[in-house]
Specification:
mainly alpha; 3-stranded parallel beta sheet; 8 helices; 51% helix; 11% strand
Length: 161
């Protein structure tokens, strides 16, 4: 079983008729995930973009970034989405909750909980003001706490010590 199958099943359960799901990345589970899309009647609403060198243009297409990882530490994809000012629906694994901070944690759901993820998708889909607020908070947090300049300063301090 792939972690993205939770994302597809949750998207199907959320029943968001005007929404589309964009999957960026590739891996050994792609055929299984494509079959799941056929089985859930989503084949026309899910796009498999495959591996992309530069995620920025793909992130710019999104209204919401969703991540259904079963395990994670510090997710670069999540940080990139935050830096782009996107609201995030994700599983509560690794540092996901810490990266988002407490004010955005309402969109962090237990790992493997299809119902909770579908509910979070419906909630953020139905609330443009909430999406804007969370996106702004995520961007501010990414810039303040996870910028390249800060990382370089902290690595330099570590190496100098």
């Amino acid at each position: 079983m792939c972690s993205s199958d939770l994302l597809i099943r949750s998207f199907a359960a959320a029943q968001l008729p005007l929404s589309r799901l964009l999957l960026v990345g590739d891996g050994p589970c792609r055929a299984e995930l494509e079959a799941l899309c056929w089985g859930t009647g989503l084949r026309e609403r899910v796009t498999f973009a495959g591996h992309q060198k530069d995620p920025a243009p793909w992130l710019a297409m999104l209204d919401v970034f969703a991540m259904s990882s079963a395990t994670e530490q510090v997710s670069n994809a999540q940080l990139e989405a935050m830096a782009c000012g996107l609201p995030i629906v994700c599983t509560d694994v690794g540092d996901s909750r810490h990266l988002l901070g407490e004010s955005s944690s309402v969109l962090v759901v237990p790992s493997g909980d299809e119902g909770a993820m579908a509910q979070a998708m419906r909630r953020v889909s139905a609330a443009p003001k909430l999406r804007a607020l969370l996106g702004t908070e995520n961007r501010s947090r990414a810039v303040a706490l996870h910028s390249k300049d800060r990382m370089l300063r902290e690595y330099k301090a570590l190496l100098d010590s």
